[in-house]
Amino acid sequence: MCPTGTYSTARLATVETTNCTVCFAGTYSPEGSSGCTNCDPGERSFYEADGRLGGHCLVCPGGKYSAMRSDSCSICAAGTASTNYSEACYSCFPGKY
After folding, report:
1. CA–CA separation, 41 vs 10, rounded Å?
2. Which helix (H) or strand (E) holds 50?
C-alpha cells in the first residue's frame, strides 16, 4: 500500500511501495490512494516530519492567502487583509490596516 503523499494506479489490493508515485506540491493523498487531490484555494500542502507530502492540506490563516494547488501561503501586502481559507487579499477599509 502506498504511503501518504504518494499514489498508485495499479489494481492490485497490495501494491509494493516501490511502485508508488510521489504527488506534486500543492496536492495531497491519503495512504492507499489511486491519485492525488489538489489543495483548494486558501489551503497549502502539508508535509510530514520526514519531508513527504501528507494526506491532507492545511488552512492558510487570516492575513495570508493561496491559489488552488499551492505549496505555501503568501502574506497579504500592507493595506490588505484576508480571513481563513482566502484565495486573495482584500483592501482594508479607510482608516484600518
Report:
1. 30
2. none
